[in-house]
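Design request, tokens follow.
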């Protein structure tokens, strides 16, 4: 296993992320630290401020020590808008290298937008979207359809530079924010292609400001999942946060739960940009992405095919990375899912569920053994926890919660009452019955690969009166599989109201 450290030196923040790179190009975050360096606050002559340079070098020295402690094999260091535009760029990079030994690559505007796009497209299943990334020194828009970029726009100002441009002592916080909002509306109105977006285009937000916005809304709504990635924010929720924050002085803004203190003084600027954009385009929903530039760099580095085209099976790639990280038997997981699909199709006349539930079964089948990596006893409880905190790519929060319940339904005696109430707003009362039936399908599938030898090839079911006759096509001794599957018969009858006979 290789350890790669990615250092992202932005206009507002310097961030170090250490990844464990697994077989197949999968990567898992093993450590992350960040500090506000504010390189975007430049001198009037376009040079980086000396105080900010010294702070950045001090931060990078700390990063280098952390890399040594974590036995990092390779450091990838990139710098974006602030360093890219600085008149004293070469001197700065030379000073950094002499002080730390870290050699930075300057990412162009086009490369930066492409990395952001690749971070999103390889981690979200959204066919048509417009991505906004608000950095300290730039704002990027990427409009794509069917995994092809149609339009990009890079504004050479961001949350830090907008704050410096419009903040003055004679403006109240609200006047300051409204000035940015008006300025950004004028900028967006100049983009003709924004007026021709398809109605089903989704608005995807990337970067620290969107992550902070998502955290605040989750706290306000008491959202039960601690997930930023693929979190949907309604316009009224954004508007509530915007109206609350835009009238506050910075000291009061720092006290908002969910808002990073290092971002408090530029958060109003970022919200004004978002407000101007949703008003200009008419979006009523914002989807936050926890995957952006850094993930785009890592996908390009570790999954070379993404340089040509995005990952086709986003969820599958994410699941396999999770399984390899946890040391799960992948062949057994694949076979369990294969059997789940067969049972789902064969029993459709009884459960009548749409195909969308197959994605839930896929997560549950691939990860049903994960809890054993922590402790065998009550492992289904640990599996459910791991799924709920997995931050899987290419799947909705609803499907993640459903999959967790499917793997652990037998430890939920009050399913449908207080336990279920925790996820109001994500799940519906009708999902209770779905979880119970999908859990039986999963248990049967796991039983039919009890020896982990793929001995059961095909499954067919005939519904005759009050019985379901289940026939198996095998390629060896399946006595253990049949024995374990018969243990599920009682639960099958309870849920499906049919006797189960296995041949």
């Amino acid at each position: 296993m290789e350890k790669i450290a990615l250092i992202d030196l932005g206009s507002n923040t310097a961030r170090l992320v250490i990844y464990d790179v697994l077989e197949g190009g999968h990567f898992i975050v093993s450590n992350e630290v960040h500090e506000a360096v504010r390189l975007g606050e430049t001198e009037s002559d376009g040079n980086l401020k000396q105080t900010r340079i010294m702070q950045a070098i001090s931060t990078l020295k700390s990063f280098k020590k952390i890399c040594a402690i974590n036995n990092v094999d390779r450091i990838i260091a990139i710098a974006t808008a602030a360093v890219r535009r600085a008149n004293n760029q070469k001197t700065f990079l030379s000073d950094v290298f002499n002080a730390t030994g870290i050699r930075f690559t300057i990412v162009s505007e086009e490369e930066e937008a492409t990395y952001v796009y690749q971070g999103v497209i390889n981690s979200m299943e959204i066919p048509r979207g417009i991505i906004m990334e608000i950095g300290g020194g730039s704002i990027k828009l990427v409009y794509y359809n069917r995994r092809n970029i149609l339009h990009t726009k890079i504004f050479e100002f961001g949350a830090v530079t907008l704050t410096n441009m419009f903040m003055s002592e004679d403006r109240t916080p609200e006047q300051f924010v409204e000035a940015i909002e008006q300025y950004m509306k004028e900028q967006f109105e100049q983009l003709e292609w924004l007026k021709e977006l398809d109605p089903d285009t989704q608005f995807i937000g990337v970067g620290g400001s969107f992550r902070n916005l998502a955290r605040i809304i989750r706290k306000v709504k008491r959202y039960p999942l601690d997930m930023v990635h693929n979190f949907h924010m309604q316009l009224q929720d954004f508007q509530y946060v915007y109206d609350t924050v835009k009238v506050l002085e910075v000291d009061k803004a720092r006290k908002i739960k969910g808002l990073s203190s290092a971002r408090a003084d530029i958060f109003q600027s970022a919200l004004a940009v978002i407000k101007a954009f949703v008003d200009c385009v008419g979006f009523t929903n914002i989807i936050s992405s926890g995957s952006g530039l850094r993930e785009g760099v890592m996908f390009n580095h570790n999954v070379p095919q993404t340089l040509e085209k995005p990952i086709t099976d986003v969820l599958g790639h994410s699941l396999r990375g999770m399984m390899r990280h946890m040391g799960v038997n992948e062949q057994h997981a694949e076979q369990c899912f294969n059997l789940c699909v067969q049972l789902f199709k064969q029993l459709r006349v009884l459960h009548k569920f749409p195909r969308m539930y197959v994605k839930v079964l896929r997560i549950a089948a691939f990860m049903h053994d994960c809890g054993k990596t922590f402790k065998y006893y009550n492992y289904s409880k640990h599996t459910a926890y791991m799924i709920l905190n997995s931050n899987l790519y290419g799947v909705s929060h609803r499907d993640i919660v459903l999959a967790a319940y499917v793997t652990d339904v037998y430890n939920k005696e009050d399913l449908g009452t207080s336990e279920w109430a925790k996820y109001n707003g994500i799940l519906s009362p009708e999902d209770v019955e779905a979880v119970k039936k999908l859990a039986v399908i999963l248990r049967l599938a796991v039983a039919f690969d009890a020896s982990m030898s793929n001995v059961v090839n095909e499954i067919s079911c005939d519904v005759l009166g009050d019985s379901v006759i289940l026939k198996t096509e095998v390629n060896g001794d399946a006595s253990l599989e049949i024995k374990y599957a018969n243990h599920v018969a009682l639960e099958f009858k309870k849920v499906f109201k049919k006797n189960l006979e296995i041949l």
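Comment from the thread starter after seeing the answer: thanks! The chain is about 45% helix and 20% strand.
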